[in-house]
Amino acid sequence: MGFRPYTHLMQTQMDPVAITQNLVRMDTVNPPGNEERAAEYLAGFLEAAGFKLQRVPFQPGRSGLVAVLRRGDGPYLCFSGHLDTVPVGDAEWTTDPFSGEIRGDRLYGRGASDMKSGVAAMTSAAISCAVDKDLRSNLLLAYSAAEETGCEGARSIAEHVPLLGEVGAIVVAEPTDNAVYVGHKGALWLELGFRGVTAHGAMPHLGKNAVCAAASVVNRLCEIGPEIGPRGPLGPPTLNVGTFRGGMNINSVPDAAEIQIDIRLVPGFSPEEALQRVRSICGPDTDIRTVLELPAVYTDPTVPWVQEVVSITRQAGIADTGNPGLSYFTDAGVLQPACVGAPTVFLGPGTPDLAHQTDEWCSVAQIRQAHDLFTAISRAYHY
Fold first, then answer.
1. Buried b (16+ CB within 10 A) or exposed e, 164-173
2. Calpha distance 180→102 (Å, rounded)
3. Domain 16-184+296-380: which topology?
4. CA 85, 87, 89, 94: dihedral to nearest 10 degrees?
5. Helix (H, G, I), strand (E, B) or coil at 249
6. Which of 13, 176, 246, 335 could serve as 128's disulfide partner, Cβ 3.0–4.6 Å?
7. Topology of domain 186-294, per CATH?
8. pLDDT, tens digit (0-9, with 9 covering 90-100), for 319-353
């Protein structure tokens, strides 16, 4: 069944715009998160529509949710969305960031674009499919906590939901302006520690300056960045020095320093290769600790199911991206391996550049369009 444009919502369906507003009005800034109340809000709709629910423990007040609808004999189509947001920030907003206010075609609020609109659209689409007695697709909706700080909630889902092994394809509803992407870079975050010997600042020859050692490594890292390896289908792997800390006071030789680096991985450039490259620059005396490791995700765009999804978006008038890769990481880095490498696309309402911004907003028309796209993709799934 192809794409059918949004015209009206029957009583048995939930309005994705209203759901987005209600989710935005729930403060799920991470930390601390408090995602559980958003999960329970969605659970009420899904359970009433016939979905079987599993609450997935993570931390107190931060449970994830998995909702399952089985209608046929084939694998599940998984929709993935996270419930947490980044902090509001110190800059002044022109609207209340937790109001869900609509001005014209724009729905404002923290998480409007990243990614409560995508969560709302995948929920309303799933409910509209559930009331369709002719539906033969099997649906699995994974709502995670703590995505913004390293996909910890998705890891909990992967550990507690063995049904992920029966997933045949994944739609990640992150903001893409409803265009189809087939991959994103992975992430390797490293903390590098340097040790020295303290001494009086007036007698530096008696000490060993850890800040100078760290600065020398930073200079060498910047020389090889931003591209630190061969290009792949998602572009080059990159390296960025994100933080630099060291020293106790101005008149002492610092005996400790620390830097943190953010490496973005691509297929063909593994975390082990990246770590080896960093070690070759730092030397054996540097303490290296891995803070986060998430693999790159990439699906061959010629896979028949991916082609079918692209066909559905074309029918909706959405132009092909021409660029298969997203710069940000998602829960797919955790969920796809748990789903035995299921083909994965990234498609959802909201403009990626608006994520994490002051006065974040999402197009109301895109939210409704995403509902239609997710509904069409769900009804067409038969693999």
1. bebbbbbbbb
2. 26
3. Aminopeptidase (3.40.630)
4. 50
5. coil
6. 13
7. Alpha-Beta Plaits (3.30.70)
8. 888 767 898 899 999 999 999 999 999 999 999 88
